[in-house]
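re: ur question from earlier - yeah i can do the single chain one, its not a big deal. heres the input i used so u can compare w yours
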Amino acid sequence: MYENLCFEGHFSLIFSFSCLFSASFHVKMNKFASFYVILVFLSIEFEDYYLILQQNDNDIMVLLKNLQFKGISFEIIKEEVKEVCCEEKLFLIMRVTNNTDKKKKLAHSLNYISVSQGLKRGSVLTLNFGVYGTFLQADAFVDLEIQFDGITRVGDGDRIEFEVNDGKLASLLLLRQNGQWGIVEEKDSGNINLNLKNKVEHFESIEEQFGLTLQKFSVKIVDETSFKLFCEVLALNGEAVNHSFGVEVAVYDSDDNIVYHTSLHSNDFKGFEVYNFGTINLDIPVDEVSKIRVYPV
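and the output i got, formated as tokens:
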């Protein structure tokens, strides 16, 4: 890039010198005056190209603030070195915005890699938004205060390793260039690698009391906080059930708390039916689901 800039600079100087030479000795002669005009035009064209090269160089890096990750955006809005207990430390303020209509649980982890002072782990001082995480309400933002011990200055070329929700939402390498933070590497978090089907529980003894069998459970993950659930409801021994019943679903978190409940009812059961419980929207990430219980009532 710099070679290109130097090349263009020399080219521009050559043409500018040629223009001055033509102006000094040939401005009164028509054929040389025409040559002078051509040189001026070429000089302007090369100067414009030089500016385009500069602009393209700045546009290579995608700015962090210009992207969203599943509806969540991030922007470093302040950099400040402050003295705390006779020791200088770097503080960053990062604005995290939830642009969705659902609250999101967010946990953040950051490492600062200084060109001159090495790698330092960051501490998120904003209550509950560190490695353990907490919920950010829908259509809301929070300004995270992040402290880096041992970093006393900020400069271009510094980098930040930034992960959200253990990399499931975002895993980025940020670079500071021209006073702004951009993304130079994004690790593909891919689809949520989780088999919720293994967390489905049902109770054959209860099903027998209703003359039913629940089987062929299917779970399709929609996003990080929702999934769809299906199952077959079959009459035992092919005998039709002559009473109404329902099938309920209870979803539990890692602390064994019920975080979601729904049910479907059948008044005209012919011995076989596929139940579609629709999209189950949770207030927790699906990877925090400990079990899904399905049972007749």
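Residues 30-59 form the longest helix (30 residues). not sure if urs matches, ping me
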